[in-house]
Amino acid sequence: MSSFIMNTYNRYPVSFVNGKGSWLKSENGDDYLDFASGIAVNILGHNHPKLNKAMIENVDKIWHLSNLYKIPEQEKLAEKLCSLSFAEKVFFCNSGAEAVEGAIKVARKYFYSKGETLRNEIITFSGSFHGRTLATLAAAGNPNYSEGFGPMPEGFISVPFADHDAFKRAINKNTAAVLLETIQGEGGIRVLPDNCLKEIRKICTDNGILLIIDEVQSGMYRTGSLFAYDWASIEPDIVTIAKAIGGGFPLGAILTNEKASQGMVNGTHGSTFGGNPLACTIGKKVLDTIEDEDIVSNVKIISQIIFEGLEVLLKKHGNKISGVRGKGLMIGIECLEKNSVITEEAFKQGLLLVNAGDNVIRMLPPLNISQPDAEAGIQKLDQALSNIKI
Ligand SMILES: *Cc1c(COP(=O)(O)O)cnc(C)c1O
Hints:
CATH superfamily of the largest domain: Type I PLP-dependent aspartate aminotransferase-like (Major domain)
Distance between the termini: 31 Å
Strand order of the largest sheet: 4-12-11-10-7-5-6
Bound molecules: pyridoxal-5'-phosphate
CATH architecture of the largest domain: 3-Layer(aba) Sandwich
Strand content: 15-25%
C-alpha cells in the first residue's frame, strides 16, 4: 500500500473512527479493547466528558500564546504538580524526548553555572529508552535505535541495568547526573527494585551527583502513585513527564528541585508551544479528575484483577508465556512464543497490546478502566493464546 506518510512505523491494518472509555471503534465497525492507551497516554480513556468539557470551554479563548507573556494556566498546573511532589520548579514542553533533552541541559547547566564547566557526563542504564532526539538516543545508548544517525552527542556512559558496582566505577570527577527510568517501559517493563533506587539516591547524594528520573511512561499514577519512584520513598532532583499528563493532548514537563534549576536563568531554554494555555488547562483537568474520581483506588483494584488473571493464564499457557512483571497498570508479560505473534493474535480478538523489548508484551490500559473491561481483556488474551498453535 503506497502512502505519503514516511515509512517509519509498522502499522496495524486498521484505523479508528471514535472511542469511548477503554474501547475504540474501527472504520469497519469493529470494537477494540484498548490496553495500549496510545502507549500510556489516554489515562482517562477516550472521550472523557470532563476533559472534553475543558477543551470545549477553552477553545474560544486563547489557543496559543508565546512564553514572552505570563500564562496563568501554566502557573496553575505548575503549582499543582509542585504541591503533589518534590518539585519546586517546572518547565513545560510538548513531548517526552523534549523533556528528557531539557533535563540533560538542566543538569549540565547546574554544574557549569557553579564553575564546574567540565562536569557534564551522564550515566544511564542499559535497556533504557528516553526518546528519539539525538541526545536522548545517545543517552539510552541502544544501537537498535541510534544506528545510522551519528555522530552522536557525547557525554553519556551506559552501565548494565541495576548494576551498582558498574555504576560506582563509572562515576568520576566529571559525572554530572544519572538518568534512569524507575520501570523501563520500551525496554520491557523492567522494574528497578526499591532498595536499588534507594542505594542509587544515596550514591548520588554522597558524590554530589544529580538524580534524573524519567517518568514519562511510569509516571502520572500509572503504578498507583503519582510517580513510580514514590514506592522507594526517595526524592530525585529532576523528573521528566509527558505521555499521560495531557490525557491525550501533547504536553510534557521537566520538574526540578530549587537547587537543580539554579543554572536555568533567563534565556537559557525555551519552547514555542511549550505550556500553551489549552494544553495546561487540560493537564490541570487531568490531575483534578484523577483526584475527583479516586483513580488511585481503581488502579489498585484493577491491577490486582489483571495480575491474578494473568497468573491463571500463566498456568494454562505455560508453553507460550512464562512470567508477569510490573506494578499497578504498567504490566509486562514475558513470552516464550515471539511477543509479536501473540499481540497480533490478540489484535484479531479485538485487544490492543504493545510489544516491548526483552520479548515482553505490555499492558497499559486506561487507569479508569472498569472491572468488566479488565476481565474482558484477560479473556481476549486467553482466547488469543489458545488460538496460537505451536
Ligand atoms: C515514550 C518515552 C519517551 C519519549 O517520549 P516522546 O513523547 O515520544 O518523545 C521518553 N522516555 C520514556 C521513558 C518514554 O517511555
